[in-house]
Amino acid sequence: MLNNSINNHSRKFLGYDHIANIYRSLNPGDILFASEDAEVFGFMYFIRARGLFSSLTVYDKNGTYLDTSIYSEARKADVSIRFSGSVSAHMAAAARQRASALLQEKIELDIINSGRGRVFYSSFPEFRNKDYRALPYGPLFHAASKNLPSGASSAPLMRLVTLRDLSNNRYLDLYYRDVASRYYIQSAKISAVAFDPVNAAYYIHMAERLAHNIPSALNLISAVYFYDLKDVPAAISRMERIMELDPYNYSVLNALINMSLQPGSAKALQWLGYYYKIAPDAALKNRILLTIEKIREETQTPPAP
Fold this sequence. Notes:
The chain is of the alpha/beta class.
């Protein structure tokens, strides 16, 4: 029982405070999309044990425990998609997943358009459609089309949040460090949007002190560098750190390759070579080879010795 005190979470309040901060940031009638366990299970407690959130609509993007009714048609894409010709199991699964994701995003965009500026996400949504945007709003992200209002300023909301474990973080486990770091990351994003790179750098430094080995937090930090600070090399370095921690993270690897194409082709070719080595089937390997050859032709890059 030597580790009992370290593993005793009964005096930690971050899980409660995080959901309470979200609740205080919203108004009756608002719509919220939740996706991660840190929020979904917290919402379950607030809804079922505390009787709160009844004035809000909370949808569960990953279909775990909360309302998923709006996604019923999108879920059918998994079984209704048909292929002409033979495809590998990996490619078929990827195509089904992408079709389902596109349908799910369309449903969410329809709700954003009809929500009149009252739609929020608990995690940063990367909209494929550039007519839509997600701006920091307290601990949340406010979603709107470009021709709809972007909501109130987020800075006052961040000054009102309560996070009792933020300073008392010596023995926080990975989950707690991940959630706590997001408040620093959110503050960095708010500073970047306000053209304040000095404070943005400070908040990123504080976030990385807490979450230097947590891929999900590093991914969010990379997004701040890439989208808000326009610092592509810094964004790439965080994605590369994720690959060190999780060498078979295909989604991060694809994003890293796309990021690397901006400053030059050498790093992209390097990561494409790695992608080729770990690709699970021959069809994907052939696609990667075609991409490598296309980049070499466009940039006149000679093959590696």
